[in-house]
Specification:
mainly alpha
């Protein structure tokens, strides 16, 4: 599975954290692969 990355290749850790915690992911316009956000599972703590 792919992780969300910017067009320059940096991993978008804030998007991964927000999606995993069930929070709003915010602006995804900088992502090179926005479809990868859907693959992040929610973590119930």
């Amino acid at each position: 599975k792919d992780v969300p990355k910017t067009r320059s290749g940096k991993i978008m850790r804030r998007v991964i954290k927000a999606k995993a915690l069930g929070k709003e992911t915010g602006d995804l316009s900088a992502l090179a692969n926005p479809e990868s956000v859907e693959n992040i599972p929610r973590i119930d703590l």
